[in-house]
Write a structure and sequence with these properties.
This is NMT1/THI5-like protein. Keywords: Signal. The protein is an alpha/beta fold and about 350 residues long. It has helices at about 1-30, 50-60, 60-65, 80-85, 100-105, 150-160, 180-185, 195-205, 220-225, 240-245, 245-265, 270-275, 290-300, 305-320, 330-340; strands spanning about 40-45, 70-75, 90-95, 110-115, 120-125, 140-145, 170-175, 190-195, 210, 235-240. The protein has two domains: about 40-115 and about 230-340, D-Maltodextrin-Binding Protein, domain 2, CATH 3.40.190.10; about 120-225, Periplasmic binding protein-like II (D-Maltodextrin-Binding Protein, domain 2). Helices cover about 45% and strands about 15% of the residues.
Amino acid sequence: MKFNKIVMGILGLLLVAGGLSGCGNKQSAATKGYKNGAITIPAKNGSICGAPNYIAYEKGFFKKNGIKDSLVAKPTNISDLEAGFASGKYDALNGDFQYLPAIQNGAQIQAAGGIHQGCIQVLVPKNSPIKTVNDLKGKTIATPGQGSTPQFVASIALQHANIDPKTGVTWKTYDYDLLAKAAQKGQVDAIGNVDPYAYQAIKEDHFRVIVDNNNSKGSDTMAKMGMKKDGSCCYLYLANKLTKQNPKKAKAVVKAYQEAAQWINQHPQETASILLKKKYVPSSQFVNQKNVANLIASYHFGLKKSKGKQDVTYYANQLKQAGFLKADTNVKQLVNKAYYDD
């Protein structure tokens, strides 16, 4: 009996080992031909600024660099994104400077380069009495979420007008596609949103622009609101597990995005066609190929490494002044922690 038990135990261990080996074979088979393995990117949220994710996939830049990629829905809640990176669920992200406070609080990501200029506006309905940022004092502003980049863009402009972003206005949250309706119904006074939703509100509903964080033309008016001339709004972020534990893979991901961003800048029309036909961006009367191509051209896509670090430093200072980073933040130390210099 004892001998039989020993034999059965050995057979059981062999079966478990075989099963694990089989799982390993399946996993390796899934990434066969991809020397740098797989990554998962929370990309799908309907925004135009996510173009590098889609183009790197559709035009084969991920595959060219030995990466098997999976594009999944992007959570609107930043805490869900943080949890996804901390757990290993996500590997890379095309996102804004909104992640600086999260990194300060322990989010496991690093910026690896500025990827394009602004795609965010603060808007008011066409008949609104609000004409300038100063008029926003005491008003209600809606954005896609607390800690979202539209909230931070509005907050930077507010603090430049000597309005405390935390006490001088009231914040509300609505989904991207419901923000304009909330303002039209009088539920809020102003909105902060991203393209194509902001563009749609401007073109279809004649919303007026109070703040535009795309200051590629060097507007002194926008610069006085804290909107950096030629500043990167959006960045490539990588999980710390890549930058710290697998630098070879991290460099391959950066290269794929760099090639995708360069391609986008050279092919705005084709990029727009891909985004709309593949339904990465929801189309409408005004969100069409011509207009999306024009917006893409205005973003000046291209992965900027050292320039991106300068821009991150600038926005870190702005967020500190606006009260979204700790008052005793050492910006230089934070940026060194938040930025990946490959």
